Amino acid sequence: MHELRELVEVRFDYAVSFTEGVFQCENPLLRSTLIKEEKGRRHRAWAVIDRGVMDAWPDLDRALTSYFEAYPADLEQIAPPLVVEGGEAVKNDEATFRHILRRVHELRIDRHSYILAIGGGAVLDVVGYAAAVAHRGVRLVRFPTTVLGQADSGVGVKNGINAFGKKNFLGTFAPPFGVLCDVDFLRTLSARDRIAGMSEAIKVALVRDATFFAWLRAHAGALGQGDARAVAELVQRSAALHLRHIATSGDPFEMGSARPLDFGHWAAHKLESLTSHRLRHGEAVAIGMAIDTLYSARAGLCSPALADAVLGLLDHIGFRSWDDALDLRGPDGRPCILEGLAEFREHLGGELTVTLLRGPGDGIEVHEMLESGILAALDVLRARAHGRRSLRPASIPVAAP
Amino acid sequence: MHELRELVEVRFDYAVSFTEGVFQCENPLLRSTLIKEEKGRRHRAWAVIDRGVMDAWPDLDRALTSYFEAYPADLEQIAPPLVVEGGEAVKNDEATFRHILRRVHELRIDRHSYILAIGGGAVLDVVGYAAAVAHRGVRLVRFPTTVLGQADSGVGVKNGINAFGKKNFLGTFAPPFGVLCDVDFLRTLSARDRIAGMSEAIKVALVRDATFFAWLRAHAGALGQGDARAVAELVQRSAALHLRHIATSGDPFEMGSARPLDFGHWAAHKLESLTSHRLRHGEAVAIGMAIDTLYSARAGLCSPALADAVLGLLDHIGFRSWDDALDLRGPDGRPCILEGLAEFREHLGGELTVTLLRGPGDGIEVHEMLESGILAALDVLRARAHGRRSLRPASIPVAAP
């Protein structure tokens, strides 16, 4: 027997830039991003735009075309943008994915051409997956247009679509060529989307950065009201922490069992599916964090004061930390939410690994969660919600079980 | 404007092992490969087998099952193997790809479970692509069963299927978990397949390793006759050079324009398509190397003696260095083969980069090839073939234009 062994190292050097007016001709960022690898040749690019973004910014495609026309020696827009539906539905069938692939073929987009993906997380996911597998990888420049996209998902290395009823069953790890975050886009979000996107920032503060958590508490009112400066600072600080994690965790493609930044996510994934995505991902994560923080306090890992602070912050920004789907029960009478733990383990592969809290900015991994502790956390959240509900009615419709 | 910049490094540590009797229970290699990351737990695995391999080794699935049954504490075969058609056709529609994905879903294969891919290059490509995108990457252990697979494609980091009439239009770069090469499989190959697979070994010797090239010349007769020891040494030396290139080139995922190991491949890809895959990939590469070696000599890059040595080695092993498809002409009267250069450039993206020869083991990159030089090389090969053909008839049927 004879063995050859090699260590294959792959380096991805990419920047996440925050700017305003990204498609205004005098803003050099897009041009400098596209020409950074090979100066002196003309770079071909094609854009895919989220319909929700086009609706809010109806001049967007004209601005993009004008931008390319302003730099004819460097840039070429090879075809009009493709406008696709946004939201989770775009990931549920393969029509959009396939349409993008067909255009890559027809437009002769090669591995050194660019696809520009402009939109919310779902559109970035489907465009990113198509770009990752066409020719084994076409250059992708992401323009996340939501708080969630700029704070977390749009700056990372994942893409995907849903299949067989499983979220992100198909996808790859594929670092983008670049990420350009235009904070202007955040101004036209609905309050619901803007708030929902903040939960990943709260999450990364809780497990990584006590100072950021303190800042979030100090600015909860401004954040809840959509103050532009506060929201811009939130997305930048959150993006920096997420990107730093990817670069320094030692496992950017998640080959191990741990996902230290998936605090609150085992319950969140299950809640999204139990509510058929009536809850936004961020809304579900807020509830998942509430559960896991209360669990951490009850398990003696963190103080009850931290749990109060987390629940208070969620309230203050405008999250709900309860949804009646938490009370759904299976044929055996068990709360369905508990299945989320097993499904989370299966999704990661290997051993169950869940992040809990020891303190603000201090996550800790555990490999078991006790059902009794989870049920106790749910009792606290249910009681809080019912207490509050008698004072003010739910602003988000609840589909009772 | 604010910029976050991080270097994301991903490390893949994988071994390519050469062995015999890989599914005999007393051979520890497969077990030790599957348990290497997490000892002490039971590892789930599912196999996909090339029908051509099953035909030659009808006891293979029973041997695999016996192997798993011999190590019940460590290994679990979660379902009977799936047998799929081999050859390029399996990459031409998505049926096999989709069937594998569906089984991954049904069998609850997770990111820490294994898919074992046993077969020729086409089967490894389609199974590898499915494994790479399911759950963003399930562990893949490859068992290449051909000379080409063990010497080159099966030890590398690529997978793919064909789409829109383009070879490998869809695929990813995804290092396998491990590669187990059982040289026993090479014994049951047809002479045609065994010989065709040797061209990538000749290629990597020519551009990287003069000593290996001298060894090939010294053993050409034994290789042509399928001497098992000589063939085993060829695949191991070739695999080591290919793997070393992936690990040390600085661009394992081919983000630049250069493909230093694609010597002879611009013409080869075009010939495969011009002959609708009547020519095997390896047969086309042999012809492509003959063209580019003659071109290199004519351009004064290497000596005429090296060109003679290369053509002589190809003859001696049993390759043909001419195919009448080289004379096919388009509507404009130009030889179709010349389109191969533009298509090669498009496939890589960026600037045209072709490797030529300065000496044995000494490739050099150029960014232009003159039509006149290519036509002159074709004239030499045509004349040689017609001279020889009058002595002995073609053993491979030629579909004349």
UniProtKB/TrEMBL annotation, chains A, B:
<keyword id="KW-0520">NAD</keyword>
<keyword id="KW-0456">Lyase</keyword>
<dbReference type="InterPro" id="IPR030960">
    <property type="entry name" value="DHQS/DOIS_N"/>
</dbReference>
<dbReference type="GO" id="GO:0003856">
    <property type="term" value="F:3-dehydroquinate synthase activity"/>
</dbReference>
<dbReference type="Pfam" id="PF01761">
    <property type="entry name" value="DHQ_synthase"/>
</dbReference>
<keyword id="KW-0028">Amino-acid biosynthesis</keyword>
<dbReference type="InterPro" id="IPR056179">
    <property type="entry name" value="DHQS_C"/>
</dbReference>
<keyword id="KW-0057">Aromatic amino acid biosynthesis</keyword>
<protein>
    <submittedName>
        <fullName>3-dehydroquinate synthase</fullName>
        <ecNumber>4.2.3.4</ecNumber>
    </submittedName>
</protein>
<feature type="domain" description="3-dehydroquinate synthase N-terminal">
    <location>
        <begin position="83"/>
        <end position="193"/>
    </location>
</feature>
<feature type="domain" description="3-dehydroquinate synthase C-terminal">
    <location>
        <begin position="197"/>
        <end position="322"/>
    </location>
</feature>
<dbReference type="InterPro" id="IPR050071">
    <property type="entry name" value="Dehydroquinate_synthase"/>
</dbReference>
<dbReference type="Pfam" id="PF24621">
    <property type="entry name" value="DHQS_C"/>
</dbReference>
